[in-house]
Amino acid sequence: MAKLFVERDRYDKPPANALVEATHALVRNLVRRRLEESGGDWNAFVFGASNTAITQADFEMIEKTILDSGHRFGWTAMISRRERPEIYVADEGEAGSFSINHPEAVIAAPDKDGREQRGVGDNVTRTPTNTIGVARYVRTTEQVIAFMRDGVPDGTIAIIDDSGGTLTAPIIDRFAGVICAGGTVRSHLGILAREYGIPCLMNSKISGILDGDRIEIETTALAKTAEAYQRGAEMTACVWRLAK
What we know:
This protein is an alpha/beta fold. The chain is built from seven helices and seven strands. The protein has a seven-stranded mixed barrel with strand order 1-5-4-3-2-6-7.
């Protein structure tokens, strides 16, 4: 796989996400080139020709450059991978065997109560007690339709990869809890969960939780605030897998 150039290559500190940084670098280089071609100054470019100087074809070329290097995009909603499977990383399995395996998930051996930590997330709303239930991955419209038709099993803690909330909005009030692999507490899904009073962790980094596992989420932890995101402060809640 070819190496993607990023502007931080000139420094010692590696980028947090090479693919994102490489995309930004390609866009910045394109803007610089178009600015030079315009022959004007920055203000004239930004407030004049910038809306027409960069076209859809330009962004398609940026995407092609990345894909031609052998890289594929990560996906945050399964529908994206279904629509354009050739540009996204492959799925990792079907329900029952699939699990999100985040490389930064915090994992620890079982504690005295038999709780095995399998990750962390950003708590949306603080609750008096932790939330315990059964993990169920909700990743397709077919699953949502089936839940609408047959009902959501009691105690379901939905694990979702769509932080927009569009997929699960029709049934979110029936979940005992939600773990979302992306977004922030201010994402649409986080807002919906807060309004419906559903315990929820956003931006969750989990690993090894399978469909049907009994889990506990630390919703007694402090809710993460917008100020905490701005300061880069760590305010995470634990996710445990419980003994069967």
